[in-house]
Amino acid sequence: MGIPGLTSFIKNNSTQYFENHQLTDTLVIIDGYALTNFLYRMHENQTSAFGGDYDIMATVYIDFINLFLRCKVIPIFVFDGAYEQRKIETIINRMSQRIQLYGNQIKTSDCMPYFGSDILFDILNDMDIPHVNCDFEADAEIVAMAKLLKCPVISRDSDFYMNTVPYIPLDMITLDFKSTMINCRLYKVEKLLNEFGGLHTSYLPLIAALLGNDYIRQDTFSSLLRLRPGTFNCGLKLKRITEWLRRQKDINNALYNMTYNLPHSRDYVNNQIKNIMKEYKNTDSKYLTFVLQYKRMAKYQDGLKNYLKPNEKTILPLWLENNYRKGTINSEVMTILTLKKIFFKVQIEDYQKPPYYEVSFKILEVIFGLLIGKNYTVPTLGRKNGLNTGCANVCLDF
């Protein structure tokens, strides 16, 4: 999930919202997939169209982890899990955009190789670095864990600009793999709020909702904020939002007034705002108990006893759960179990020929059969017929 325009606005005013910082003797929570994409794009050598480069990626991942360990920083990697039903439209739109991009005759160097993230999981397991695969989207878990461990978050997701945890964007870190220190720039949301009139941090979920994200259209509140639909000036939007919120009696009154004039989408928007507020207030980590099992986390176990809960119940069978949490089984398995669908990654290939994944259908039948059972039809979504997105069904009738 992301807030359109917010990253650019904050980066353009970085002197106001960031402070110089040096990472040492601390924990950090790292958004795992954000890191893999960031490091790949940083070190990609214009050969993406051919796939692979896994040796280069492995070296970069290892150098990154060793830099943190050398500076006495323990990284905790948290990864997104299954796709969620509420994001299906966004997922399909992004898939279509990538198909159009990768199908161009001028090839892009922005295509992550198919097993790029699997390499990182292998390295994390080999080096015994704390990490966990979440059941679903990881943002709320990352924030909850950072609050409990009192440490910063490292990512590229603009949602973290609207939260109270200290945040370090990946491109604000000086990555010198031979260094003995990690210089970076640290963001604290209080500086942003002070710049726009000093609203209390409890209003952050409403600000995020008014700005718009993957679940709430950007122009939903254009009339309320006296903005033209399609306004992308994030500074202007923040100014109007904070002015409007300061005129409200309290949060409940603001929430009521936000949705009062949305007769057709009121219930939906209300639910999305309440989800944002719930995630913002949450300090219960579902997976901290799992993360604390790593040897590098031993000294933190006693201090966090009161916050630990039994491992989160999951629909995964016991024989699969531990491997899933460690990433030796990837998140597509969870998508199959929860949505009964599979989404194939878009890759660079000959788009005049059938998509790469069709040769795997017989193998998928066996995998689906183990996870779901027989006599079931699983829709699959990916590239089909040139530059089009389409569905195919895998029938479990063996």
UniProtKB/TrEMBL annotation:
The keyword Nucleus applies. GO terms for molecular function: nuclease activity. Residues 1-98 form the XPG N-terminal domain. It comes from the Eukaryota. Keywords: Nucleus. It holds the Pfam family XPG_N. InterPro entries: Asteroid, PIN-like_dom_sf, XPG/Rad2, XPG_DNA_repair_N. Belongs to the asteroid family. This is Protein asteroid homolog 1 isoform X5. The gene is LOC112688776.
